[in-house]
User: Which sequence fits this backbone?
C-alpha cells in the first residue's frame, strides 16, 4: 500500500505529460502543411515565382 | 531568521549569474555527461516528434505513441538534470560525489515524474498571467536541484522547493529578466549559424542545399523548433547553475554550509592547523597571542616569498591582455627623441630589436631542444655508461653534438632557402606555354551536341566531310547546326539545351519578323531536318543541297 502511494503520483505525472504532449501533437497536426513547410509565405509574397 | 537578515545576506542577481558561469566552467565532465545524457535524448525526441507531426502523411496514427515516448524522455531528462544539479551542488560544497544507491535513483525518478510534468501546464499559465512566473519557475527548478537527496520524499521535496522559491524574489526576477534578454541573442546567433554554415559549405565545397537555393526554406516550423531547442540547450545549464547557487545559499541560511566552504577554500594545506585558531580568534572564544599569529605568518611567508610574488605579479601585468587596465603614459622626454622622423626611426629600431630578441630566444629554445634530443639519441644508441666512459665530460660529448645540431640547422636553412628560391623564380618567370588551337570535333551522333560548340563554317566543313564519307544523315545534322549557329550569331535566337527546334522557330519569328526570307528559309530547314533526323524520310544529296541553299539565303539577309 505504501509503495502504491509512492508510485501513484509518478504514474499520474507521466500520464499528465503524455496528455500534454499528445495535445501538442494534435495542435501540430491541425496546422496546415503550407505553414509547416513554409510555402504559405511563397504565396503571400508576390516576389516569389 | 528575520526578514532583514535574510535580505542582507541576499547575493545580487548579477553576482550569482557570474558565479553560475564560473561553476559551469569548473563543472567536471561527469556532470556535463549527466546533463547531456538526459537532455540530448529529450531534445532529439522532441524535434523528431515535431517533424513527424508536421510532415508525415500518417502522423495521426503515431501521435499518441510519439507523445508517450516524449513523456518518458521528459521524465528521463528531468532525472538526469537533477543528477547534474546534484553534482554541481557537491562541487560547490567541495565534497566528493557519493555513488547513488538504487533506492536514491528510484526516489529521484518518482519525485521528478510526480512533480515535473505539472510545469508543462503551469509555466505557460504563469507566463500568461506574467506576475507569478518567476516563483513558479523557481519552484520547478528547485525541484530539479533538490531532486536527488537521500532523505527526501515527494511531499518534503515540494515543501523545500516552495520555501526556497520564495527567497529573494527581487534577485530571482532580475536574473530571469537578464536571461530573458540573453535568450533572443542566443537564438539570433543560432539562426546566423544556420544561415552561414550552408552558405560556407556551398562557397567552399560547392554543396547545394535547400537553404542555399532559397531563403524561404528557413521559414518552416521545424527550423523554428530547432532554433528554440538550441536556445534551450544553450541557456538551460546556466539557469540550472543559477538555481543550484540559490538553493545552496538559501539552505546555508540555516545550515551555515557556505561559511564552512569558504573557510575550507581559504585554508591552504599547510595552514589547516591554524584555521581553528583563527576561528577561535574571530569568535572571541580564545585569545590568540602574538607568537601564534607570528607563527602562522611565518608559515605563510614560507610558502610564497614576497619578492617572488612581486616578480610573478609584474610578469603577469606585463602581458598584453592586462595592458588595457593600465593608464596610457607617454615615455619620459629624455627617452624619446624629438621630431616625428627621429621618433619613427627610433620606434622602428626598437621594434626590430625586440623582434630580434624574440627570434633569438626562439632560436635558442629550438637549439636547446635539438641538443637535448641529440643527447637523448646518443644515450639511447651508445648507452649512458659508454658515453660517460669515453667522454671526459658532458661538455666534451656535447661539443660534437652541438656541431651536429648546427649542421642539421644549416641543412634545414639551406633546404628552406632553396625551396623559397624556387618558389620565387617560379613566380617571377612568366609561364610560356606553347599551345596550338585545337578544335574538338563534336560527335554528330550524340543528341546532346549543341550548335554553339562550333562556328558555322566549321559545321559546314564537317558537313562536307560527312558527305565525302557517305554519311548523309550526319551531314544533314551538321548543316542544320550550321544554320542554327548562324542565326544565333546574328542574335536572332538564344541557344539553350532545353529549347526545341520549334522554340527556335518561334523565337526567330519574334525577333526577325521583318525578314520574311529568313523565316521561310529557317522554317524549311527545321521541317526538313525534323522529318529526316527524327522521322523516316530519306536523306539525299538534293535534300542537303536544299538545306545549304536555305542557309545561303539566311546568310544573304
Assistant:
Amino acid at each position: 500500500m505504501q509503495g502504491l502511494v509512492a508510485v501513484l503520483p509518478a504514474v499520474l505525472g507521466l500520464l499528465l505529460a503524455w496528455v500534454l504532449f499528445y495535445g501538442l501533437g494534435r495542435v501540430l497536426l491541425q496546422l496546415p502543411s503550407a505553414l509547416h513547410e513554409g510555402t504559405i509565405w511563397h504565396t503571400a509574397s508576390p516576389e516569389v515565382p | 531568521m528575520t526578514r532583514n537578515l535574510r535580505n542582507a545576506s541576499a547575493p545580487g542577481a548579477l553576482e550569482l549569474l557570474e558565479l553560475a558561469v564560473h561553476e559551469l566552467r569548473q563543472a567536471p565532465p561527469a556532470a556535463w555527461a549527466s546533463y547531456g545524457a538526459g537532455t540530448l535524448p529529450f531534445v532529439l525526441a522532441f524535434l523528431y516528434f515535431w517533424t513527424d507531426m508536421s510532415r508525415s502523411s500518417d502522423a495521426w496514427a503515431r501521435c499518441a505513441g510519439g507523445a508517450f515516448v516524449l513523456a518518458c524522455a521528459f521524465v528521463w531528462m528531468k532525472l538526469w538534470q537533477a543528477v547534474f544539479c546534484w553534482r554541481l551542488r557537491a562541487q560547490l560544497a567541495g565534497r566528493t560525489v557519493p555513488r547513488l544507491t538504487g533506492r536514491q535513483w528510484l526516489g529521484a525518478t518518482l519525485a521528478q515524474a510526480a512533480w515535473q510534468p505539472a510545469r508543462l501546464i503551469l509555466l505557460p499559465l504563469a507566463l500568461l498571467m506574467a506576475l507569478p512566473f518567476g516563483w513558479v519557475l523557481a519552484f520547478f527548478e528547485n525541484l530539479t536541484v533538490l531532486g536527488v537527496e537521500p532523505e527526501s520524499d515527494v511531499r518534503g521535496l515540494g515543501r523545500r522547493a516552495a520555501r526556497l522559491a520564495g527567497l529573494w524574489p527581487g534577485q530571482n526576477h532580475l536574473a530571469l529578466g537578464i536571461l530573458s534578454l540573453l535568450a533572443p541573442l542566443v537564438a539570433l546567433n543560432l539562426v546566423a549559424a544556420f544561415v552561414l554554415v550552408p552558405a560556407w559549405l556551398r562557397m567552399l565545397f560547392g554543396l547545394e542545399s535547400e537553404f542555399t537555393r532559397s531563403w524561404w526554406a528557413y521559414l518552416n516550423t521545424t527550423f523554428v523548433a530547432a532554433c528554440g531547442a538550441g536556445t534551450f540547450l544553450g541557456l538551460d545549464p546556466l539557469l540550472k547553475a543559477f538555481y543550484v547557487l540559490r538553493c545552496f545559499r538559501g539552505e546555508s541560511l540555516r545550515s551555515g554550509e557556505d561559511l564552512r566552504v569558504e573557510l575550507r577554500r581559504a585554508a591552504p594545506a599547510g595552514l589547516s592547523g591554524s584555521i581553528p585558531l583563527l576561528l577561535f580568534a574571530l569568535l572571541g572564544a580564545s585569545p590568540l597571542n602574538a607568537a601564534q599569529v607570528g607563527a602562522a605568518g611565518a608559515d605563510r611567508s614560507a610558502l610564497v616569498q614576497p619578492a617572488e610574488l612581486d616578480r610573478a605579479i609584474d610578469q603577469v601585468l606585463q602581458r598584453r591582455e592586462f595592458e588595457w587596465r593600465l593608464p596610457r603614459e607617454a615615455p619620459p622626454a629624455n627617452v624619446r627623441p624629438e621630431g616625428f622622423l627621429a621618433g619613427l626611426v627610433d620606434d622602428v629600431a626598437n621594434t626590430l630589436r625586440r623582434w630580434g630578441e624574440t627570434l633569438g630566444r626562439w632560436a635558442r629554445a629550438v637549439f636547446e631542444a635539438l641538443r637535448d634530443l641529440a643527447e637523448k639519441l646518443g644515450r639511447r644508441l651508445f648507452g649512458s655508461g659508454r658515453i660517460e666512459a669515453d667522454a671526459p665530460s658532458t661538455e666534451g660529448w656535447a661539443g660534437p653534438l652541438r656541431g651536429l645540431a648546427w649542421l642539421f640547422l644549416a641543412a634545414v636553412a639551406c633546404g628552406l632557402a632553396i625551396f623559397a628560391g624556387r618558389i620565387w623564380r617560379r613566380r617571377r618567370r612568366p609561364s610560356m606555354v606553347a599551345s596550338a588551337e585545337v578544335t574538338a570535333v563534336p560527335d554528330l551522333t550524340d543528341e546532346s551536341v549543341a550548335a554553339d560548340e562550333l562556328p558555322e563554317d566549321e559545321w559546314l566543313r564537317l558537313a562536307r566531310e560527312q558527305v565525302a564519307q557517305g554519311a548523309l544523315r550526319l551531314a544533314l545534322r551538321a548543316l542544320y547546326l550550321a544554320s542554327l549557329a548562324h542565326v544565333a550569331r546574328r542574335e536572332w535566337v538564344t541557344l539553350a539545351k532545353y529549347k526545341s527546334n520549334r522554340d527556335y522557330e518561334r523565337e526567330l519569328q519574334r525577333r526577325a519578323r521583318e525578314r520574311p526570307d529568313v523565316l521561310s528559309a529557317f522554317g524549311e530547314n527545321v521541317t526538313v531536318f525534323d522529318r529526316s533526323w527524327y522521322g523516316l524520310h530519306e536523306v539525299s544529296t538534293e535534300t542537303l543541297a536544299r538545306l545549304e541553299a536555305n542557309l545561303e539565303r539566311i546568310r544573304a539577309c
About this structure: Chain A is about 80% helix and 0% strand. The interface with chain B takes residues 6-7, 9-14, 16-22, 24-26, 28-29, 31, 33, 35-39, 41-42, 48 of chain A (CB under 8 Å).
